[in-house]
Structures are given as C-alpha cells and as structure tokens.
Amino acid sequence: MTIKTLKSTSIVILLWVACHINAKPSSALIPYHLKEILSNLSVQEKIELVTGVGYEQSPQGMTGYTTSIERFGVPHMALLDGPQGIRIDWSKKDLNYSIRPTAFPTATALASSWDKKLVFKVGEAIGKEARHINADIILGPGINLQRNLLGGRNFEYYSEDPILTGRIGASMVMGIQSVGVGATLKHFVANNSETNRAALDIVVDEKTLRELYLRGFKIAVQDGQPRAIMTAYNLLNGVHTSQDRRLITQILKKEWGFEGIVMTDWMSGTDAAQQISAGVNLIMPGSSDDRSSIKKSLQSGRLRMEQLDQSVEEVLRSAINPLPTLHSYKLLNKEKLLKNNRSLARVAAANGMVLLRNKGKTLPLKSNIREIAFFGNGSYHSLISGLGSGRVCSTYRVNIIEGASNFGYGQSKLLEEIMRNYLPKSNPHSVCDYGGGFGRDPELIDERDISEKEIGLIERQSDAAIITIRRLPGEGKDLSEEDHFEVSQTELSLVRSVSDIYRNKKKPVIVILNVPAPIETESWADHADAILVSWLGGQEMGNAVFDILTGKQNPSGHLTASWPKKYSDLQSASGFPGIGTSEKLIPIFGGGDMAKPTKIEYLEQDSVGYRDILQSQKSVAYPFGFGMHYTEFELSNMYIKQRPHNVEVLMTITNIGEVSGADVIQVYSVNSDKGDVTFRELKGFRKTDILSPNQSADVTVTIPYRELEIFNNDNDCGWMLEKGTYLFFAAHSSQHIMSSGMIKLKGYPSCEKNG
Ligand code: GLC
User: Fold this and answer.
1) Which of 37, 391, 463, 648 has the highest Cβ tally under 10 A?
2) Which of 126, 143, 265 gets mutated to test ligand 1 (max ligand atoms within 8 A of its CB)?
3) CATH architecture of 43-327
4) Is the model's pTM score more than 0.90?
5) Known active-site residue 265
6) Which atom in ligand 1 lies closest to the alpha carbon of residue 233?
7) Which residues lie below 8 Å from residue 640, measured CB to CB, with a gap of 6+?
8) Which CATH code fits 631-749?
C-alpha cells in the first residue's frame, strides 16, 4: 500500500469513527480531510455531489436530496420546504411519517408582529419538526422585498422594507438553526413577482439593487449565518441569478463572507456548467441532463476542473460539518412537541394581527354580545396559507367560525343554514387536498349575494356581525388588481347593507381581512366599526382571531407594507408585471399563469412603499408601521448615544391606558445635511414586553452604522457612511412620529471587505 493510500485510508478510518460515534469530525481534520477526499473522488462522483439526486430518487416527501459518498463518510443532505412549516404530505397513505406538521402563520403575518424573539421561536419549532423526520435543511425563509402589493408570493415574504426583512429573516434563520437544522435564505435575488418568473429579466440599477433588494439578504446572511442560499428563477440585468458569478461569488461569498452552500431553485436557469462556474454548489432537484451537461462542459473546457472542485469542496464542507447545535436538541416526545407548536402557532398568529380601525372602542367585544352573525365565505372556510411549495399539510385548521364557538359564542342559525347550503362540501379541516400545494382550492367560490331582507332577519338573531373578506394567493401566479386588490361588488354591498342594518340597531360590525396583502379599503372602511387583519394566519388562526376580538390578547401587530388608497398610487404599478413578449414560454415547476412579459424595469428605484409615499407626500389608507392597540403608549426621555459600532436610541415607554399590551417602537432616520428630510427610512425597531397599565420600560433601539451606510457607485468601496447631521425619529408608524433627536456623524468610506 502506498504512503498516499495509507494516509487517505487512515483519514477515512478516523472520520468514519468520528461520524459513527456521533461526534462532529474535528474541525482540524476537515480542511486536510477535504483535500484528501477531493483527490480521491472520480469526476462522476464530483458531478453527482453538485447535483441533487432528482425527484425520482428523493426519499418520499423530501423536496430534495443530495448524493452521499459512503467510503468517505459524506452523508446525504435532505432538503425540505418551507417557510411556514415542514411540507410533507402525511395524507398519502404509503408515507408513515412520525409527525404531522404544524402550519404556522405565513411570513407576512409573522413579520407583522415585529417580534424577533417570537420569530426565532417559530423557526426553532419548525426546526424541531424537521429533526423528527431527519431533514437536514429547511428551504426557507423567503426574504424577497414586497416591491408591489400584487406580487404573488408576497405572503411568503416579510416586508417592503429591507431592514425589517433582514432582521426578521435573521431571527428565523437563527431559530431554525438553533436545533441543528440548516436554513435557506431565498430567492436570491429580486424575485418580486411571479408572472413568467423563470424567464423574467429584472432590470435594476446597482444602487437600488444594493440598498433595497440585496440589503435584507446581506443583513440576514451576516447576522443569521444561514447554512444555504437559494438563487431565484428570474434573471437579473440579463443574467440568470443562478448563473451570475458577480452575484454569487463576488458579492455573496467574497464581499459578504457567506460560507454556506448555494443551491438553485428547482429546475431554474438554463446552463448547468455556467451555474457551477458562477459559484453554485447544488443544482436542484438535479437531473441526468444536468450531469451530462457538466460532463460535456468539462470535456470541452467550457468548465474547468478547478471550478468544479471549488464547488465540490464547499458542498463537502457543509455535508460533513453539521451545525454545532445538532447535538443541542434531543428529540422531544412528538406529542409534547406538537402540542407546544400548536399553541405557539396560535400566539404567533395573534401577535401578527393588525387592528386597523376600532371606532368607539367597538373592540374588545362587549359582554352582552353572545350571538354573532358570520358573513363571508372566509368565516367558514378561512385561508390559513397560500398555494404553492410552502403550503403545509396540517392535520386541521381552526376556521373563524370555530374560533367563535371555542369562545362560547353562538351564531345566527339562519345565516349558518344559508352558508352551509351554499358552500362546497369539503373537509374544512384538511388543507392537504390541493395537489401538494399547487392545486386549485376547491373551496374558493364567489361570495353569495345576501339580500337586505335576509340580513334583516339575520340581524334579529344576532348581537353583532362579523364579515370576513378573503384572498387566496399562490406561487407561480401574481395577484390581479381587479380580483385581489379591489373589493367585489358583492363584498361592497354586503359591508354596506350589513352596516346600515346593524348600525340602525346599534349593533357592531367587524370586518376580518383574511388576506395576504393590502386591499382597497377607502370604499367601505367607514361602514365598519372595526377592521382586523388576520392575514393567512396558520392552522390556529380562528382561535387567534378571537383571542384578539375578546381582548384575551391585546392587538400588537403593525403593518410591514403600506396600504395605498388606490393601486395606481404605487410607482411600480405602471410596469407590473412586466413588458415584452416571450417567444419561448419556459414551463416551470408549479404551473402558474405563463403570461408574456420577459422584462420588468424597476424604474421607480428606491421609491418603493413608504419611501415613495413620504417622498411624494401621497396620502395612504394605512401607512407602513401602522397598528392600533386596546391601550395607549407614551414615549418620554428620548436621547441618543454614539457607540464605537452603532448608535443607540434610548427612551422610556409607558402604558397610559387601562389594559396590558406590548408596543412596537420604530426608529427612522435621515441625514438632514442631504436636504430632503421627508426621506426618512426605518433603521431599527423593538417590540416591548407586555406592559401593565401605568408600567414603564426603558427601551434601547440599537442601530449599527452598517444600517446608516449608503451604497456609492463612484466610491471604489461601494458602501460608505456619509458625514452629516442625522435625525432619528421614534415612531409608531412611518407617519406617526412621537419624538426625535439628532447627532452629527463624521462618517467614513467603509470599504468593508464583506460588503
Ligand atoms: C419552488 C420554489 C421554492 C421551493 C422549491 C422546492 O419552485 O420557488 O421556494 O423551495 O421550488 O419546492
């Protein structure tokens, strides 16, 4: 046996022992070991390591699976959707999963809590369920910016603001990874619409790309240290993101210092060899075509072996180097875990709900209200998530009507009979019957017209009315202004008729918005006494709605996107969902409406959401950051401290109302030396603990200088902190400023090597 063979054999034995005594191979071993493995792999093995095994070979239920190299102790990695919980279809009889997943609230609902600790806990809970079915990496969270409210996957994303997106995304990553499961930030980058997503070219200038669309990823990568990143389907300035070396290797890996693995989205891109040379580590789900294309490119020299080796080495490093937290979580008794997760799903849903209107303190519901009339299909078939790869097949869902009965409320028998006769017969508790998440929702039918005569009869049987308006989004398809943003004539007349009749009898009318994104409210909001946004709130949503309506929980959610009065108020509205005509329709995973656009130009640059609203002084239905409470909070003693790496904004928050509650403090900032002081941007936030009446808390919002930097195309470093007089505003929304302060900063050209 040659020395070389003897050495590599001994390395292998050492590693085999390490892996099998459940100890992480010693880190000292790994670099040396990687080179050893690499030098002993065949070309075919290297190609297989950078391409998933494919749908057919993935173990049932897993979304993706990678190749193992047994002789070197390189394990498979099992990849599993998604951002709202683990996507396994336990209803398939031939799959005997040990666990049935929990459907947590969708991303927008979670982010609307503005509560990083809560988001961490949800990530941790999803990670624990993933551990029970031996998944190694969760394909989530999705952290693309909500550029336009018709974006089809906005429900799977957090906000129109990059700082909020990055911080919430980092919390989710740290939560998932706290139990040894990897998280995947997706979809890198600029997946802000779904129409023709696999062929759509996003044209955006560098400054906007950096400061708006990449910034959330940069924060989540540097703060969360995710195991993986998934590139997007779309092109960016003419190059498929999965084939873009500047994006993946230069910005993500070199500038930001990302050390995890980069995978493609499923069946995305057009050139496997170019994906590897761009810096992709895993082409998913992987196919024989991908493998033969890489092989041919090696033979032709279009792909160099050292490029493949680089990618292989990074995959190996991930595969054989589990997260240190893997051994920190011992699998809980699954019944106990699922019970804990169900109550967490309820808490998370309630904390993300946003109270938009509460005329005359209609809410919490008064004690004399016992019988409620439930109008709207969504009261009976409530939407707990959207369609697509993120849909969780939970064992049940609590509809709004059931939430009411769980709190002892009766309902109008007449209306219940009308709706039961009208609604499709489906198992209202199963969310598995939609073709694995992409099917059509059999429950989605038009609202029933209800006559004023019927409403009059119903009113006599009830003390209050609840009207649920719902909207169902889905991956692969954008929302439409008419069907999603506008309210239908039936919905409009329902709200107006119910309001006229119930108000006449001094009975309250509450509207629940079971929606993924802003809808038009100007035409009807005055007819409602209260409006609560439940979002798509996961399997416990019905209970959480009544936690809020009864006052068991004080609402504390705040909007993470602006609600415009008209869709056309958005600068991005005119060019959405894109221009041009695609000759070739690229059929993509997940179906969807393959409309024509091939390009979408982000001409509005940074005028997105509240930035646009503030700069253009437009009025808005409900501003970014807005949310009402059942109590009032007062801010005092605000002052600012300058620290070596950050600015601290300190203040005292006092609950001056009559009930306990938590407040969301937002800090916006602008460099007033640059002129336009209306262009304040969110730079930090804190959710307080629950404060009792008259209780105060000292709050510090810490703002790293990194968050104050601008991207300067001229400067050879890019990111820099400009000298100036910085104003800081402590606020309850982008338009409700409570206090302000200022400091002078001398600034620096950051030249931060990690971007
Ligand atoms: C889908 C989605 C992605 C998902 C993947 C695997 O097309 O874009 O979010 O994780 O494929 O299902």
Assistant:
1) 391
2) 265
3) Alpha-Beta Barrel (3.20)
4) yes
5) yes
6) 8
7) 647, 648, 649, 650, 728, 741, 742, 743
8) 2.60.40.10
